TrEMBL record:
Pfam families: bHLH-TF_ACT-like_plant. The keyword Coiled coil applies. Its main location: nucleus. This is Plant bHLH transcription factor ACT-like domain-containing protein. Residues 68-128 form the Plant bHLH transcription factor ACT-like domain. The lineage of its organism: Eukaryota, Viridiplantae, Streptophyta, Embryophyta, Tracheophyta.
Amino acid sequence: MDKASIIGDAVLYVQEMQMQAKKLKTEIAGLEASLVRTERYQGSNKNPRKTRIAYDNNPICKKIVQMDVFQVEERGFYVRLVCNKAEGVAVSLYRTIESLTSFNIQSSNLTTASERFILTFTINVKENEKDMNLPNLKLWITGALLNQGFEFLTST
């Protein structure tokens, strides 16, 4: 094997290990959060402030499984987001659409299906935004989701 292929293999291995570490951290955070909720429910916690701090510091695993964006009018768009169902995810979804200040939100609907949230909303581009098209809107929405801590799952 030449040096380049060894280095390439090493880089891939390190990336895989980083992804596994991230998944494990998320899983641990979820387990700790469920333990805190159980203790709170059973009333076995002696220090509620400590529990609240521990609960607030746990990262929320927010993953976008699917994003569909359709242009339905000249300045109107329909968006459908499918993501995992976890505590705090719905709030982050709505913070995302509220952060889209170049658009008027016409309607939104949040439903659950199995272990997923499905958020659909319709938006109109504000008059001061001249060059808004479907690819640009997808970039705006993707950026807003990333700012709220969402990750995008890609099928391989």
